[in-house]
Write a structure and sequence with these properties.
With about 230 residues, this protein is mainly beta. It has one helix at about 195-205; strands at about 5, 10-15, 35, 40-45, 50-55, 60-65, 70, 75-80, 85-95, 100-110, 110-120, 130-135, 140, 150, 155-160, 165-175, 175-185, 210, 215-220, 225-230. It holds the Pfam family META.
């Protein structure tokens, strides 16, 4: 029989901080700028050397040398043979999910114009309605055979860190999130599931901070330097 037991009320989480650019390490190539759109689906990659465009769900492929960006009144423009790209800063929704990006991107490929989003993935406006899966806990990748999740509704959070299910209420006030009391099932799990769950619950016993790197992940960090990294699902 599965029993429910209360967990310690989770302490306040610090305010969500805005995304910041990751510094480029010595000898590393600059990160490519990515953009995408829907109906028809398309993607664009801008590297220091080339513009690589795949349009019409991959049926149209254009790769041209990067001509360099020209500054415009609304952003910047790349003008090359067969391809013109305009990047305008400002929050943009991809139209297929709740993800928001830093820029609106318009591509004209062989005379056909499409509009989508590009640049950094912005933090969600609110936790409510978002769902995540764990990537790592306390520096260790999560076990691939143990499904994980962390989801937020208007006033409740729920999920699994690899073994038991947990859920409870939460509230946000003055940029602080407080959760609990939480309830969790009490099962023993084989392999790494139990260990990674224990590490997550240990992390959540102390004050933790939420941050949203520009790659669309959520990082939960404790005072002792332990961190859980999650990837957004919706």
């Amino acid at each position: 029989m599965i029993r429910l037991l209360p967990l310690l009320a989770l302490p306040a989480l610090a305010a969500c901080v805005p995304a910041t650019d990751n510094p480029q390490g010595p000898g590393e190539a600059p990160a490519a700028y990515m953009a995408l759109g829907t109906e028809p689906g398309w993607t664009l990659e801008i590297t220091p050397a080339r513009l690589n465009y795949a349009g019409d769900y991959g049926e149209t492929m254009i790769a041209v040398p990067n001509p360099g960006a020209q500054t415009t009144t609304t952003g910047k423009r790349y003008t090359a043979d067969r391809l013109t790209v305009e990047v305008r800063p400002g929050p943009c929704s991809d139209g297929m999910s709740d993800r928001r990006y830093a820029d609106t991107v318009t591509v004209t490929a062989d005379g056909k114009r499409v509009t989508g989003c590009g640049g950094d993935i912005l933090p969600p406006d609110a936790l409510a309605g978002t769902s995540w899966t764990f990537v790592s806990i306390a520096g260790a990748p999560v076990a691939p055979d143990r499904p994980t999740s962390l989801a937020f509704t208007d006033d409740r959070l729920s999920g699994s860190a690899g073994c038991n299910r947990f859920s409870g209420s939460y509230r946000v006030a003055d940029d602080m999130l407080s959760a609990g009391p939480l309830m969790a099932t009490k099962m023993a799990c084989p392999g790494a599931g139990m260990a990674q769950e224990s590490a997550f619950f240990a992390l959540m016993r102390g004050p933790v901070r939420l941050s949203f790197p520009t790659d669309g992940t959520l990082e939960i960090s404790g005072e002792g330097g332990q961190t859980a990294v999650l990837k957004r699902v919706i």
